[in-house]
Amino acid sequence: MKIKELTQYLEQIAPLAYQESYDNAGLIVGHPDDDIHKGLISLDCTEDVLDEAIDKGCDIIISHHPIVFKGLTKLNGKNYVERVVMKAIKNQIALYAIHTNLDNVFGGVSSKIAEKLELASYATLRPKTGLLKKLAVFVPRTHVDTVREALFSAGAGAIGNYDQCSYNTVGYGTFRPLPGAEPAVGDIGLQERVEETKVEVIYPAIKERAVLLAMYHAHPYEEVAHDVVSLANPLLAVGSGAIGNLPTPMRGEAFLAYLKEKLQLNVIRHTRLLDKPVSRVAVCGGAGSFLLQEAKRSGADIFISADYKYHEFFDAEDEIIIADIGHYESEQFTQELLLDIIRKKFANFAVLLTEIETNPIKYYS
C-alpha cells in the first residue's frame, strides 16, 4: 500500500494537530505516495533499529519518538541523528513518528499504562481546552433535517459518548435580496420573512473545514447566516495523562510490588509512602511532572510518571506518592499499542515489533 494510507489512518486516531509545539511527529523521511510492504515498530529510531529494518526487509519504521526534533542544518553523519536519516534515505526506508499526538489522545500512551494496571473507569487527567468550537446556523424549516444531518456526517454534534447532538430554536429571519443576488426565496428589492430554525452544534476545531463545507453544500441559501464561536470547554478525549481506580485498594508497599510486576520494571524511585491505602492512581507516560497538581486535585493517592528531578520529589509534600518508573519503561507498551492499532486496520500489511531494546539507561545491581 501507499505510505499515506497508513499515515492517514494513524492521524485519524492521533491527529498531528494534537502534538505539542516542540514536537516533530509525522512523516520525517519518505514520500506519501511511496509504496510500503512491511513495517517495523519501535519506541526509538536508532541506528540498530534501522539496521534491523534493513535486515528484515522493512520499508518503513513507525516509532514513538521522532529521530529529528530540531531542524537539521547539515547531513554529514557526525551524529546518530544525521547517520540514521542519511542511511534511511539511502536504503529507501521511510521514517514516521507518532509522539505527543499519541500521548494526547484517550486510548493512547497513558491509557495503555492504565490498562496494564487494570484501572477502572479511567479518564484523561488534564483534558485540553481551546479545541472545541460551536456553530450556529440559521436554516429555513424546509431544509433543517438536511443541513443538520450534513453537519453530523461531517463530524459535528459529538459530545463524549453521544453523537448527533444539537440544539434547535424556532424563529424567523428577514432579508431583502439586492440587485445581483440569486435568492432561493423571495424577490429582488422586497423584504422577505422566512420561518427558520437556529441549529447549534459543537465540533472539534480540526474538523472545521469539513463541517463548514457540509453546511454550505446542504444549505439552500446563497448567503448562509451563521456564527462560529471558540469554546473554553475541555475536550475530554484529548489531553495529558490518565487517572482511574484500582479494583481493590492496596497498601503502598503492596502497590509498588504490583506496579513493578505489571509494568515489568527494574526499579522504582518514589517518595515516602503514606499511611493510607492506594486506591486512586494517576499516570503519565514519559516526562509528566507538570501534571502533579492535577493528580493531587483529582484525588490521586499516587502519581506514576518519569524523568523526575531531585527537587521535584519534594512537591509531593506528603499529599501524594510520586513514583518515577523511567522514561523508556513508562512508554515501552506503546509499541504493543501501535501494533494492535495497525493490525486491526491493515490485516494484510506485515508489521513487526523491534527486537532491539533502545533504552539508553542501564541498571547495575
Describe the structure.
The chain is α/β, with parallel strands linked by helices and 365 residues long. Helix content is 27%, strand content 28%. It has 11 helices and 15 strands. It has helices at 3-13, 47-55, 80-90, 100-103, 109-116, 144-153, 208-218, 252-262, 292-297, 327-331, 334-345, and strands spanning 26-29, 38-42, 60-63, 94-97, 120-128, 132-140, 167-175, 192-204, 226-231, 235-250, 269-270, 278-287, 302-306, 321-324, 350-353. The strands form 3 sheets. A 6-stranded mixed beta sheet has the order 5-10-12-13-14-11. It has a 5-stranded mixed beta sheet with strand order 1-4-3-2-15, sandwiched between helices. Helix 2 links the parallel strand 2 (38-42) and strand 3 (60-63). Helix 6 (144-153) runs antiparallel to helix 7. The longest helix has 12 residues, at 334-345. It is globular and about 90 Å long. It starts with a helix and ends in a 12-residue tail after the last strand. The model has no long low-confidence stretch (mean pLDDT 96).
